Amino acid sequence: MSVVYAETKDNGVTWSSPVRIAKADNAATQPRLVATTGDNALVLWTEKLAGKPGRLAWKILLSKDNR
To answer: Are 3 and 43 in contact (CB under 8 A)?
Structure first.
């Protein structure tokens, strides 16, 4: 279980290669996407490493125009 994203700039005709944003060794669940200013987004999910309590994780995705 992981969280990945891909981008499109042509209304879904083509997509970028998927990029993993959750750590590979953590079980990631319940992803949520929140649109922010411009074409940016906030991604939130819960993640759990084996034998550890679950926790909230997040990443701000900046559009290529804002990087």
So the answer is: yes
pTM: 0.74
Q: Which helix (H) or strand (E) holds 32?
A: strand 27-35
- What does the alpha-carbon distance between residue 55 and residue 8 come to, in Å, rounded to a whole number? 30
Cβ-proximal residues to 51 (8 Å cutoff; 6+ apart), any chain: none
> Going edge to edge, which strands form the sheet with 41-48?
27-35, 41-48, 55-61
Which amino acid is residue 48, in one-letter code? K
pLDDT tens-place values along the chain, 67 residues long: 789 989 888 999 999 999 999 887 888 999 999 998 888 899 999 998 888 898 999 999 887 665 5
